[in-house]
Amino acid sequence: MNGLQVEGLVAGYGDLTVLRGVSFTAGRGELLVLAGPNGAGKTTLLSTVIGRLTPSAGSILLDGQELVGLPIHRRTRLGVGLVPEGRGLFPGLTVWENLRVAARAARLSRSEARAGIERAVNAFPVVGERLKQKVRTLSGGEQQMVAIGRALLTDPGVLLLDEPSMGLAPIVWSRVLETCRRLADEGRVVVVVEQRVLEALETADRCAVLQQGRVVRDVAAEQGAIAIPELAGTYFSGEAAS
Length: 242
Description:
single chain, alpha/beta, four-stranded antiparallel β-sheet, 10 strands, globular, disordered C terminus
């Protein structure tokens, strides 16, 4: 399968198991929203896909290639990009410096880094306008654009975004969603972990719902927009997995 395939993933922290046999697929050109209550395992899932956590069981395939066992920089080079919750930028550095640090971490050549920065600027022209500014002087929306632009440096085939709407005004959030849709339409897998689910579903193809470390619903976006309000009491409240 071309795209991302997660099968039977079990992972956690020490003796605490958070993911309990998570399985889902997302093909190229598809925008998948991952929904669920706080503690359902959404961030843990993204951390495992990017390589921050090592699963105790299961498989993660990108275009048929196994990622489990590979370090983060290898996964990045193979085409997995992550925009973490909270953005993970260096506020005391300029936008340019943040992009250069990320390029070095991904072990990009000088020409690859230049192409990546051009890709980021094309996705968000404001990034190009703010290259010399320190990140701490930017608005929350501009910082999120820099964070997504940074993830685009390696031209990822899979782009993972963890709570990208956090702190964003509705108009900026709408712009970010439009960009996510465009990136998927270019042939990427885009996976968005989000609490503002109904808004995200307006541009998504599918929605998978996690509860207590398991995928309990995987439906088309249109069905998710109907089902999630009805299931809110079941899936978005109650005991969290961690």
